[in-house]
Specification:
This protein has about 110 residues and is mainly α. It contains 5 helices and 2 strands.
C-alpha cells in the first residue's frame, strides 16, 4: 500500500509515534522536515517515515538522548553504513501491512 504522501495521522499510526512527538522531532532533527501542502498540512514521504522509524529505535528503544540520536544519524550518514538489524524500510512496510490488516479486520 505505497503512497506518495502520508498525513501526520497516517504516519503516527504506521510508526506508533504520537503526532505531537513527530512535530517536536521536526524542530530537533534536520533530517526530518516534511513538506506542507497548500492547506498547511504536513505531507510525509517514504524517506521521512524511514527517518522516523530510525529515530524511534534510537530514542524510544535504545534510550538515546536527542543529542545522541543526532550524532548517531550523522555517523550513519557519513559512513553510509547502517546497523545490521532488520532494515528500516522493511519495518515500515510491515507496520503498514499491520495497520492495513487491522483496519480490514475492523470492517469485517
Amino acid at each position: 500500500m505505497k503512497k506518495l504522501y502520508y498525513s501526520i495521522g497516517e504516519v503516527s499510526e504506521i510508526t506508533d509515534v504520537d503526532a505531537h512527538v513527530l512535530r517536536y522531532w521536526e524542530t530537533v532533527f534536520d533530517e526530518l522536515s516534511p513538506k506542507k501542502n497548500k492547506a498547511g498540512n504536513r505531507t510525509y514521504k517514504e524517506d521521512d517515515i524511514e527517518t522516523i522509524l530510525k529515530l524511534k529505535e534510537l530514542i524510544q528503544e535504545k534510550k538515546y538522548s536527542t543529542e545522541g540520536a543526532q550524532q548517531a544519524l550523522k555517523r550513519e550518514a557519513e559512513s553510509g553504513e547502517t546497523e545490521k538489524e532488520i532494515p528500516v524500510n522493511l519495518k515500515k512496510d510491515l507496520k503498514e501491512m499491520r495497520v492495513f490488516l487491522k483496519n480490514l479486520l475492523e470492517k469485517l
